[in-house]
Amino acid sequence: MQRQFNQALFSSTPEARDSLLQDIRGDNMRECNQRLNVYRNNVFVSLMDALGEVFPVCKQVVGEAFFNAMARQYIERHPPTSPILSGYGDQFSEFVQNFFPAQSLLYLPCLCDVEYRLLQLTHAAEVPTLSLEAAQQRLSQVQNPEALRLHLDPQCELLSVPFAVGSLYLAHQSETPNLNQLDIAQNEYLLLAKAGLYGRMYLISAAEFDFLSALQSDPSLSQALPDQADFELGQTLARLMTWQVFHDIQES
Amino acid sequence: MDTYLNQQTEDSHLSSGFAQRTGISLKPSYYEQILREQPDVGFFEIHAENYLSAGGPAPYYLDRVCEQYDITVHGVGLSLGGEGSLDAEHLEHVAQLVERVQPKVFSEHLAWSTHQQTFLNDLLPVPYTEQRLALLCEHVDQVQNRLQRKILIENPSTYFEFNSSAISETEFIAELVKRTGCGLLLDVNNVEVSCFNHQRSAAEYLHQFPMHAVGQIHLAGYSLDENAQPALKIDSHDQAVAHEVWQLYQHVLQLIGDCPTLIERDGNFPALSVLLQEAEQANQIRRLAKEEADAKTI
């Protein structure tokens, strides 16, 4: 019965529904179909809503009708495999890339990828990081800056993206997004980190991206300093300490 | 039949918020207000599947709410009515949550939602046959064994009935209780929805329902699909509790006396005060039922 039910929900051909319809009480086929459709509608609407909660900015950008059309096809091709829906949509970005009606929105898969990563960060366990005060205190006690080791929270993610999806995402955190200054074709560097209970995204410079990438593989400050002329160590450290992304600061 | 009737635990409920005052669903949009204002509700109910992440706001706020209120855990994804075996990993996650939260009640549904690897995110109907009953009993036994407690199973809202069903829903449920020792969560809105959709008498359904096993009641709102022929009531949980559901609730309490009750809301969330008013309305009906029961014993 479940197999027939599953087929009836996911297939558009009448044949797929027939065997289940035979087992439904009703005065006529129209009524049986109507009754079955309540379940079909419940399944799709609830899953479209679930995807809308995972990709809220994508939904805002393309509009509800477009998003739901895209989500419906995704659900048909990649139905969830777990009752925990906060992890649903892991292939959505890839799907969107190949979704023909969205082909002109080149940045959309990239935006979906960022949104998915942020939500997974939100649901990940909180890892203790240094508060701004604690980080400042550690730095003030440093004897030899050359020997400083900056340990980033291992959950931090660095992304170099070919579109301004970071700015697009941040603009949509406001109720009235202002997109006037936004050049979506601009590449961006993003830092995703957990701040308190939530995954957060920060725009960083190319030099900061290089600096943080280097710190991820080797926490030695002296080894990580980038060559770029626009890199201001003091400013960058101040920003990173405010975002509380350091797991530890030590002097080796 | 395994028995998990821990009498001591059951008695301790009698003095708790859960037993005394109506509860409401715990939803993210209310977290901050609940902690700030500490509303006078008996308990909060969570959907297990929304509280299984390692971090983030859900477990954080749940812990805070747990410090001050009784909690009930309502599973929506174990697929107890399914044809296949239970998802052991998911059951383990749910069991860990139950161990952590120590809820007054753990409840699940007479429904299925998982087919092989696919989770359909809806409570899908079960044909009432001896074969499905035996399988459901196995699943309920498995959950009760893992949780080491009696669980409550909720009567479903359904939009069609199977020709292959050989026994009535109430007989099926009564037999489930007899074989597994589980309790029941009587969802009064589901009774209204299903009886309307199958053109049956809700009073008759309640008369046949194994009321002795009811440990909790759910009240919720439905929506009406008037375009359907015949019209169908949909168990949407996004409206206020309907007038006829309040009437049925009164009738249920006349039959069984006072019973822990939840105002269940899963969408179209109103101000918290609106849910609190509904909970108070349930409390008033419960007080009347208690007074009537007391009057009878004098």
TrEMBL record, chain A:
InterPro entries: DUF2063, DUF2063_N_sf. Gene3D superfamilies: DUF2063. Residues 1-96 form the Putative DNA-binding domain. This is Putative DNA-binding domain-containing protein.
TrEMBL record, chain B:
It holds the Pfam family MbnB_TglH_ChrH. It comes from the Bacteria. Coiled coil: none annotated. InterPro entries: MbnB/TglH/ChrH, Xyl_isomerase-like_sf. Gene3D superfamilies: Divalent-metal-dependent TIM barrel enzymes. NCBIfam families: PRK05409.1. This is Uncharacterized protein. It comes from Marinomonas aquimarina.
